[in-house]
Amino acid sequence: MLQSPWSRIGMRNLGRNPKRTILTALGLAIGFFTSVVMVGWTQGLMNEMVDNATGLVGGQIEIHDAEFRPERSLYDTIGGRDGIDVDQVLAQVSDDDRIIAVAPRVYAGGLLSSGDSTVAGMLMGVDPEREVALSRFLDDLTAGRLPQPGRNELVVGTEMARQLESDIGDELVLVASGADGSMGNDLFTLVGTYRTGLVEIDSAFAVLPLEDLQALVVLDESRIHEIAVSTQDPWLAEEVAAAIAATLEGEALGTEVVPWSELNPAIVEYTALVDVFYYVIIVIVFGLAIFGVANTMLMATYERRREFAVMLAIGATPGGVVKSVLYEAAAMGLFSLALGVAITWPVMVWWHNAPPDLTGLVGDIEMMGSVVSLTMQVEYDMGFTTMVAVALMLTSLGSALYPAFRASRVPPADTLSGL
Amino acid sequence: MARIGRAHRLTGLLTLGCLATFGTASAQIDPLEIIDQVEQLYRGDSSRGTTTMQVVTENWDREITMEVWSLGDDYSLVRILAPAREAGTATLKADQDIYNYLPKVDRTIKMPASMMGGSWMGSHFTNDDLVQESRLINDYDIELSFDGDRDGIVVWEFTLVPKPEAAVVWGRIEYRVRQTDYMPLAVSYYDEDGELARSMEFSDFANMGGRVIPRLMMMRPADKPGEYTSMRYEDLEFDVDIDESFFSLRALQNPR
To answer: Does B102 touch chain A (CB under 8 A)?
Structure first.
C-alpha cells in the first residue's frame, strides 16, 4: 500500500492538520470502545444470568422420571416404584469428561412450623457433599453449617427463616404427606441459612439430607426424584443431555433428561435477542460516527480543492484522486483502530479482572428465574471485537466515499483560476 | 369437615321434613327459604361421633378411625383413634383457623392460609372444607333447576351460582335433595370454567342419635377416576355437654 503514490499522499494528509486528525480518530476510537465495552458488559451479565440460572440451584441438566414434570408428584420417582440403585446410576451418568458433578435429590411439599409461624415450603433432600460440588447456593451459607445425615438437621433460605422467626439452633416441625398416605412429621434443628437473592427460592426451599427426607415421607432409599448434573459450560448442556439420555436408554428406567435450555427457554430466547442487539449497538454507534467523519473528510477535501485541481491538471485521473482520499480514510481508520484498542484494551482487562461493583447502588436484580448483580464484569469476545474493528474501517472508508467523489470532480481550470 | 358438620346439621332436615307441607307439586318452592331453614336448623347443635374415613388413591389406600366433636358452626375437633401410628393426631377448627396437633413431636401447628386448599389428612377433602363457614344463601344465588323424578326418587335440584362479590372457590354447585324427607343425595362442585371438579354422594340413611342422617358420604375428585374418600358414621350423638373451652389449643394438646 505504501508503495503507491496515492497511498503516500493519503497518509501524508493525515499529518496536514494533526488536531483534526486526532479528534476524528478519537471519535471512531470511542465508538470502538463503546461498542466493545457495552457488548462485553452485556455478555458479562448474560453469562452471569445463565450461570446463576443453571449453577445456583438447578444444575444444567435434570434427570427425572418421564412423568415427574410438571406435577412433581411424590410418587414419580426415577425407575418407578422400584426405584434405582442410586450409586450405580450416579456413577453411570457421571461417566463423561464434560460433567463436573452429579447429585441426587428428593422433593416433597410440606409445612415448616416454629412457634406460631407456619409456612408452606418445598422440602429438598440432598446429598450435602455432592450438592456443594454441583450447585452454589449452599457454598457460602449466610449463617451456620450444612446439615448432617441422621441428625434431623436442615438449612432454610434467609427469607423462610425470617418468616418462621427462627435462628440457628431453633427447632422446626416438619410436616409432609408420606408416600403411604400418612402425615409424616418430625422435629428438625435449623443449623444454617442460605441466600440466593431469588425470593422464590429463599422463601420456599428447605434443604435436608436425602435420607432424612426419605424417612419423613416414607420413601425407600432407592427412590429419588431427580439427578442434577452440572457441565463445564452451560452451552454444552444440550449435547451432554443427549449423551446421558442415550446412556440411560439401555436401563429402561423411563427417564427424561432435560437440559436447562428446555427448563428455562426464556433465557435462551433472551440470549438470542441480546445477540441481535449487539449488531444494533454497532449500527447505532458507527451510524452516528459516520456523519462526523464524513463531515471532517468533506472539509478536508474542500480545503484541498486546489491540490486536487493541480493533480488533475497535470494528468492525474479522477480514479487516482478517489484512491488518494480513500487511502487517507483507510489510514485514518487504522490510526483510529490503534487508538481505540489502546483505550479499550486496558479497560477491558481491568473490568474483567476487577469489575466496578455497582450492587451497592441497586442491589441484585431478578430476571427470568435467575439473578444478576451489577458488578459490571466484562467478558472478552474476540469475534465481536473483530467485527467492531471491521465496522470501524468500513465507517471510515464509507464516510470518505462522497468526499472522494467530490474531490475527483473538481474542475481544474475553474478551481485554479479562483472561480 | 364442614361437610361433616353439614351432615350433622342436615339431620335437622328430618324435622323440617315433618313440619313442612311442601308437596311434590311444589309450585311455591322458595329455594332460598329451604336452604335458609336448613341452615337455621344447624345452629347451636353440638355433637360427638365416631367416623371411619377411607381414602383410596392411585398410590395407596388407608382407613382412619376418628372421633369428631362439633359445636355450632365455629368449632370442631377431630382426633385420630386408629391407625396406632397416627393415633392422637388432632385437627381443631376454631372460627377461621385450623390447628393440627402432632403427638409424635408434641407440637401444634397452625395451618397457613396458603395451605387451605390443600388436602386434609391425605383425603380428598381440603382444609378449606373444614373452615368453610360461608352460608350458602349469603354467597350464592340459588335457583330450583329441577323438580321431579331421578332414578325413581322424587327430588329437587338446586343450582347455586356465587354472587359477584362472594369470595368462594366454586363456580357453581348443584345440590340434589330428596323431597320426601329433605335428605341430601348429591352435591356436585364445578370450577370457574364450568368443569366438574368433584362430587359428593350421600347414602345409607339411618337413625343415629335420634335423627335420620346419611351415614355415608363419598367424595370423588373428577380429575382422578377411581379415587375417593368415604366417611362413614359409626356412632353419633347430639346435644352433648361441651362448650367452647373444649375447643381450645390446650384441650387440643391434652385430650380429656
So the answer is: yes
